[in-house]
Structure formats: structure tokens, C-alpha cells
Design a protein that fits this description.
α6 runs parallel beside α8. It contains 13 helices and 17 strands. The protein has 414 residues and is α/β, with parallel strands linked by helices. The chain starts with a helix and ends in a 14-residue tail after the last helix. The protein binds zinc ion (ZN). Zinc ion binds next to loops.
Length: 414
């Protein structure tokens, strides 16, 4: 029902935009409407549809004119671009950490909404500003005529440090729904991205305070200087349980007309969500269709998986050059020293930035192929418990960790 309302709102918004455009071009809209009773009829029932607030996205690789924008001085930056990634955040710790088989895994790999809020505030206070991963490197032609990647100079507000955020597995997997996570993204009554789900009592909840994506949207609304270029984060999507909470996937084991009809419905429902995310600074990358291990699967399996991702996910979110390795597992043994058949294949499919997971925001432009490999840091239970020092430049785990709601497991700094 909520989804239907969201769709209806989106449709009405489009209609009203189209109507505005027509009015402007013909200059005779009032007359036209008066002459056509059907155009007037729905007006009484039409709910108030908020105009989407304008959202500006700019290019951090271009110096503002005279080096100043909105009274802020900009300066060239060629240093490290830090990169943090999150999994979906825990909305209801009492469901996540209830002692079932998933509890310790969620403790290892996730942060709670409270922790996430505190991390955003801390990186903001420490002078980080958001940049999109797609703006950090560009493809160009080398002296030998071959394509290669280059690191772009970024022009940042003076004294600020660039930060990429990425969000893995923003698919709203089935197992998460009963484990304290939100169920899907929707467009709320205010026209903005919200999450929908159920609280521990089973009540339906639409909110902007329970999910990493709308929480960051709100944070940027309240602190626009955190995102001087309008960037938010890159959403790393698999495909095997659909995307963003919509079951857009196929199943090769059995496929009926009813399943396909439902899939088409889900595809139509997710389209306005994707459009609004893109409009407001979110971008998308591949996390492979099946969350497969690129270090051990056969080239043939990886080719099939990649085509399926392009068919079922890429067809909806659009082309991407960003690949996030599932499990952080590098192809061909080691993609730093080697450029093996798997890496070459993935690169041939359009990927240019290959992200793993590591202990620092490492990046390396490969010399023998047009590609960048990079590592990301991972704020989660594991690093909150065991890597306090390494993350002090972003936040102090002592100030962040919800010790009381998490399982009683070892903490190095306690
Ligand atoms: Zn993953």
C-alpha cells in the first residue's frame, strides 16, 4: 500500500511537471484546462504533492571561479582520499542481538543506527567532506595511446579532507528483515527517500531515522558543508535477492508467468527510488550478482554472474565503473601484482575501480591495464572492538560503540 502511494506520488509529480512545462511553452494552460472538464476533475482528490527540493551536484575536479564559492576558499588536494564502507545499519538492536545464529555475524560486520549517527558526526567534526568515488579517478589516454586511469586533483574547501563512503549489500536481504534491519527504501510523504519496515512489535514504520541512506540524506540537509559537491555514497549492489528491497531478480530453477509479473511490478516500483537516489547524489556499483568469491570461482562462472548482474541490476541502475569485491576477495590470487584472466574480463565489462577491504585507504593505479585497485576501511563491530587506534583519525571507538546493546564479547580497549 505504501509502495502504491509512493508510485502514485511519483506519477502525479511527473504529471504536474509535464503540466508545468506545457503551460510554460503554450502560455494558454488556464484556457486549456477550462475547456477540458476531465483535466479539472481530479484536482479535488489530489493530495498535496511536495515539489522535489532542487539538489545541486557539482564537480570536485573543477576549481571554482577565483577559487571561491559561497564565500568559501577552495584549494587543490592531491593527498589520500579516505574510504569508509558500511553494511546496512541495525535499526533495532534487540532483534539483531537476540542471541540467534545471526547475532555474532551482525555484531562483527554492522554498526547500529546510534553508532552510525555518531560516526557521521565525528568525521564531519574532524573536517572530512564527501566526494563521490567516481570523481576521484578518470580514464584518459596515455602517451603510448592506450587508455589508463589517472588520479584527479580535487578542489576542496580549504583545510578539508576528502572522504568516500560506500554501502555494501544494500539489497535488504530476506535474512535481515527479521533481524533488526529495515525492509526497503521508499519515497515518503515528503517526497524524500525513507525506509519502510516493521518494529519489534510488528508495526509498520516509515522513517528517515532508521536506515543508513536517509540518515545520511538528513545529515547533509542539516550540514550542507559536509557535502560541498552534493555527493552522498556509492551503493554496492548484488542481484540475487533484488535491489533496495525490491525483488527484481530472476530464478533459473523455476520461473512462472506469475513470478515474472511480480518481478515486473517490483521493477516499476524501484525505478522512482533509483531516480531519486541518483538525483540526490547517490551512485551505484556492482557487488556481483551472487556475492561470489572472485578469487576461487571459475572464469566461466564469473562471466555468467557478471552478465546476470548487468541484465538484472545494471539495466535498472545504469552503467557503472565501480566493482566492490564480495568478501573483499581479490581475483587471480592478487590483483596488485597480477593482472589475470578474471581481472581482464571484469575490466573488459567496463569496471575501472576495483575495491577490496583493508587496513588503510590504499589505492594503486595499475600500469598494465586501465584500472585502479583500492582498499576500504570498515567501521563495524570488529574494528570498534579491536582496531580503535587505526580509526582514531575518524572517531574514537570508546565514544561510538553501543557496548550495552551488543553481545558481551571481547573489547581490546575496555
Ligand atoms: Zn558483501
Amino acid at each position: 500500500m505504501r509502495r502504491f502511494t509512493a508510485l502514485l506520488l511519483a506519477a502525479l509529480m511527473l504529471l504536474s511537471l509535464a503540466a508545468c512545462g506545457q503551460g510554460a511553452s503554450t502560455g494558454g494552460s488556464a484556457q486549456n484546462a477550462a475547456g477540458d472538464p476531465s483535466a479539472e476533475a481530479p484536482e479535488e482528490e489530489t493530495p498535496e504533492v511536495p515539489e522535489p527540493e532542487p539538489y545541486e551536484i557539482s564537480d570536485p575536479t573543477v576549481m571554482p571561479e577565483d577559487g571561491v564559492r559561497d564565500g568559501v576558499t577552495y584549494a587543490a588536494y592531491d593527498g589520500i582520499v579516505e574510504h569508509l564502507f558500511f553494511h546496512p545499519v541495525v535499526a533495532y538492536p534487540e532483534l539483531a542481538f537476540d542471541g540467534d545464529a545471526q547475532a555474532n555475524g551482525i555484531d562483527d560486520y554492522m554498526v547500529t543506527v546510534d553508532e552510525y549517527n555518531k560516526i557521521l558526526q565525528s568525521v564531519y567534526d574532524k573536517g572530512y567532506v564527501l566526494v563521490d568515488i567516481g570523481d576521484v579517478w578518470s580514464e584518459t589516454t596515455g602517451e603510448d595511446g592506450a587508455p589508463k586511469m589517472v588520479r584527479n586533483t580535487l578542489y576542496l574547501p580549504e583545510g578539508k579532507k576528502p572522504l568516500i563512503l560506500s554501502f555494501d549489500d544494500t539489497n535488504y536481504y530476506e535474512y535481515m528483515l527479521t533481524n533488526g534491519f529495515t525492509y526497503k527504501l521508499v519515497i515518503g510523504e515528503d517526497g524524500k527517500i525513507a525506509s519502510w519496515g516493521k518494529d519489534p512489535q510488528g508495526n509498520e514504520v516509515t522513517s528517515r531515522d532508521l536506515d543508513a541512506i536517509p540518515i545520511l540524506d538528513k545529515f547533509v540537509e542539516e550540514h550542507p558543508d559536509f557535502s560541498p559537491f552534493g555527493a552522498k555514497g556509492c551503493l554496492s549492489l548484488t542481484g540475487y535477492e533484488g535491489i533496495l528491497g525490491y525483488r527484481t531478480q530472476t530464478d533459473t530453477k523455476s520461473w512462472t508467468a506469475a513470478q515474472e509479473a511480480n518481478r515486473q511490478k517490483e521493477i516499476e516500483a524501484v525505478k522512482p527510488i533509483i531516480a531519486e537516489l541518483k538525483r540526490t547524489g547517490w551512485t551505484f556499483g556492482s557487488h556481483t550478482w551472487g556475492h561470489i568469491r572472485l578469487g576461487s570461482k571459475s572464469l566461466e562462472t564469473i562471466q555468467e554472474d557478471t552478465q546476470r548482474w548487468l541484465d538484472e541490476v545494471g539495466s535498472l541502475v545504469g552503467p557503472t565503473t565501480i566493482l566492490f569485491y564480495p568478501h573483499g576477495e581479490r581475483p587471480d590470487g592478487n590483483d596488485w601484482q597480477n593482472t589475470g584472466p578474471v581481472f581482464r574480463y571484469l575490466q573488459s565489462q567496463g569496471f575501472r575501480v576495483f575495491c577490496s577491504v583493508g587496513i588503510e585507504s590504499f589505492s594503486y593505479i595499475k600500469k598494465d591495464i586501465c584500472a585502479v585497485i583500492c582498499d576500504r576501511l570498515h567501521p563495524d563491530g570488529t574494528t570498534l572492538r579491536h582496531s580503535r587506534d587505526r580509526y582514531l583519525q575518524f572517531y574514537d571507538a570508546k565514544d561510538i560503540m553501543d557496548v550495552a546493546v551488543r553481545p558481551q564479547r571481547e573489547i581490546d580497549w575496555a
